From TrEMBL, chains A, B:
<dbReference type="GO" id="GO:0042584">
    <property type="term" value="C:chromaffin granule membrane"/>
</dbReference>
<dbReference type="InterPro" id="IPR006593">
    <property type="entry name" value="Cyt_b561/ferric_Rdtase_TM"/>
</dbReference>
<dbReference type="GO" id="GO:0140571">
    <property type="term" value="F:transmembrane ascorbate ferrireductase activity"/>
</dbReference>
<keyword id="KW-0968">Cytoplasmic vesicle</keyword>
<keyword id="KW-0249">Electron transport</keyword>
<dbReference type="Pfam" id="PF03188">
    <property type="entry name" value="Cytochrom_B561"/>
</dbReference>
<feature type="transmembrane region" description="Helical">
    <location>
        <begin position="60"/>
        <end position="81"/>
    </location>
</feature>
<dbReference type="GO" id="GO:0046872">
    <property type="term" value="F:metal ion binding"/>
</dbReference>
<feature type="transmembrane region" description="Helical">
    <location>
        <begin position="132"/>
        <end position="155"/>
    </location>
</feature>
<feature type="domain" description="Cytochrome b561">
    <location>
        <begin position="1"/>
        <end position="196"/>
    </location>
</feature>
<keyword id="KW-0349">Heme</keyword>
<comment type="subunit">
    <text>Homodimer.</text>
</comment>
<keyword id="KW-1278">Translocase</keyword>
<keyword id="KW-1133">Transmembrane helix</keyword>
<keyword id="KW-0472">Membrane</keyword>
<feature type="transmembrane region" description="Helical">
    <location>
        <begin position="101"/>
        <end position="120"/>
    </location>
</feature>
<feature type="transmembrane region" description="Helical">
    <location>
        <begin position="20"/>
        <end position="39"/>
    </location>
</feature>
Amino acid sequence: MIAPWCGFRGTSQVLGVTSVVLTGFNLHPLCMVLGLVFLQGDAILVYRVFRNEPKRNVKVLHGIIHLLALIIGIIGIVAVFDFHREAKIPDMYSLHSWCGMATLILFCIQWVMGLLFFLFPVASSWLRASYLPVHVFCGLVLLVMAIGSSLLGMTEKLLFSIIRQPYSLFTPEGVLANVLGILLVCFGIVLGYLITREEYRRPPNPEEESLSVHFKTLTEGASPTGP
Amino acid sequence: MIAPWCGFRGTSQVLGVTSVVLTGFNLHPLCMVLGLVFLQGDAILVYRVFRNEPKRNVKVLHGIIHLLALIIGIIGIVAVFDFHREAKIPDMYSLHSWCGMATLILFCIQWVMGLLFFLFPVASSWLRASYLPVHVFCGLVLLVMAIGSSLLGMTEKLLFSIIRQPYSLFTPEGVLANVLGILLVCFGIVLGYLITREEYRRPPNPEEESLSVHFKTLTEGASPTGP
């Protein structure tokens, strides 16, 4: 299944990069789409792209890209709070802000939980195995919430400028924003498809799983079979 | 795993019914949330709720609830086109309308494909087995798109009435709409969790699968082993 996989992967990257370029008009949307949509999506995708590389390396890469996504997301949030303060606009009144903030907070929690459970395993292997499907599900939910929040933000932005340029007259700005919205939806669909299809999954490797459980021990130089 | 299943199922129903009640202020949002969110969600859920009932009956119920959802969705779309014509508002210019219309069109295609492949199987059993995961994935995508479109519509509605009642002043109408938006997101998350967890899946039944493939033949009164 290499050919369709490459096609879908390539499509996801074209959709993602185009979306990031189209939001380049302003720091807040640029950071949110680059961080919480494109990088979050690609961080999830590393398990599919590098499915034959050692799992430990892929895990570290997954964590680093997510950290980068989180930092860029926080820069984007700070940018909009600064803009609100200067323009004397109240914060956190809209559905966009509620959904966006919920996404960022849950993203932070997900990242810390992932770090504790999978990179520095403080939990037992039973607890980790139970948490893994929840972590995977929550990751996909967060990607969808980030895309949804972006679309809400774009609708807000378009309707705020309704007095200068009526959105309902099919202005180029409005149509371009709609196209960007559809591209983001398509990015989410392609990513979701790649992530959930069984045939693109990382093949299970019992030996690696066993090593992976003891990653903390390994990095400390002790025996993999140690406590 | 009956106890958490019942809890999640109950939660999904409370969230869904509350969302429908909260949108009762206007025909368009009422129909879209009742049809394409609540009923679509529940139509998907029948495979989990009735997982010990004969598959054929569950399939028919799944198709009927989806048909009801589709009819209610079309009533909702017609209502907003009528409203636009009377108020001389252009159609289909906003991201909400693009996403909403895409959802309805894809929903129709999904319903017809489901009917052809699974209720009146014109496709071979190999083709049906290949299409099933795509059908399941598209169903979940359509539910998410319906929820996303609803949130976009609510943001539009709130910003259109910005001159009468500024949304940014935390008016009760604005806060209530935000709460409805969050309820819809929660409904989607709980549904998504119920649908994707392995332990809530319908247990496989090879005998039933074999009968199911020949459902068309069975309903025509011929032998299940016939062509």
